[in-house]
Amino acid sequence: MEQFFRIVDRKREQAARQDKSRRWRERVRVVPGAGEQQDSAFHVLPEGMPIDYFDPTFFNQLQPRTRNRVAISKISLLPIVGNSLTWNADERMSDRAFTDKYGAEVFVKYEMVDDADIGDDGDDEWTAEDEKDEDMTERDDFDDDFDISASRSTLSNQLSTNSVA
Question: Are residues 99 and 59 in the same domain?
Fold first, then answer.
């Protein structure tokens, strides 16, 4: 996918520079060298992406429910990504025809999971419980704060009543 986005950037810049009424105002994107790449600050995975958006090794190590949530059984990249945006016949195919033509060689690399595969076997239960625990902790903190505020108000009312009397 990174290669595809680099091609898109080059094509956009080229189009902007060829049209005298437009200026290239995009920031320069520097491709890191080997060993220089940094982890992204974005850790949440996008949902409903074509399966070939993800690296197969990365995708296959995800939890089954996560794999089911983030990817769909569709492909979007040409087998040779460098041929993208060249107006070749494969780019003009419908999504279904494109997936029928190239899908088999792509899907074999991924361990796809669908709703029936997940069932109620307990996979990813720890994630849901952790989220519930966090929600409960936040509620408990809120309730504690509310109790303290109520106690302060009561105490304040008592003090103001006692000082008037």
Answer: yes
